[in-house]
Design a protein that fits this description.
110 residues; mainly alpha; 54% helix
Length: 110
């Protein structure tokens, strides 16, 4: 699981839908009180941006004509850390891993 925190317009279908699913997985972990220390220490998770990131991904899914019917919500009383993901490093990592994202990024964001 990870949050890329890059512009969703530049993500291929697989990574867009994958990160969307992972926001739900992170939310489930938080709501169940599970520890996510490994994701935090490896800069793969940005807790305070979880709901807004989900909504950003969902908006892009809808813009592309995909079906989205899975809102998320955070249980009351959960304290979130202020961990931040460096979007430049994350973008470089994503584009080096995925030729489809690299092509889409050049077309839509470059």
């Amino acid at each position: 699981m990870r949050m890329w925190m890059v512009n969703p317009k530049g993500m291929c279908r697989r990574h867009l839908l994958g990160e969307h699913l992972e926001t739900h997985m992170f939310m489930g972990c938080l709501n169940k009180g599970k520890k996510l220390d490994g994701y935090l220490s490896n800069n793969l998770f940005e807790p305070r941006s979880l709901v807004s990131r989900h909504d950003e991904l969902a908006s892009e899914m809808i813009r592309r004509g995909y079906n989205h019917k899975s809102p998320i919500s955070l249980d009351d009383g959960i304290v979130l850390s202020e961990q931040k993901i460096n979007p430049i490093i994350s973008q470089m990592d994503l584009l080096s891993r995925c030729a489809a994202c690299k092509k889409r990024w050049e077309e839509k964001c470059g």
